[in-house]
Known about the structure:
By secondary structure, the protein is an alpha+beta fold. The protein has three helices and four strands; from the N terminus they run βαβαβαβ. The chain has helices spanning about 10-20, 35-50, 60-65, and strands at about 5-10, 25-30, 55, 75. Strands 1-4-2-3 form a four-stranded mixed β-sheet. Helix 1 (about 10-20) packs parallel to helix 2.
Amino acid sequence: MSEKREELFGVNPLLEALRAGTREFDKVYIARGVHSKGFEEVVQLCRQQKIPVHLELREALDRIAGTKKHQGVAAVAV
């Protein structure tokens, strides 16, 4: 049986998913140098849920997301 992987992009969609706790995330990617209240909450929720957070260059997130419209955050859910 193969695993279905889902990718999620954007600060607010990720925050909502982390708060709801309805998805199991494999890892979260955040663009280096990005600082805001939303990103801080993403990191805090990931720590609480033991989800690895990787700081990446924005160009790396562009490749991971397949678009530049990721708002500096991308997540992989299993």
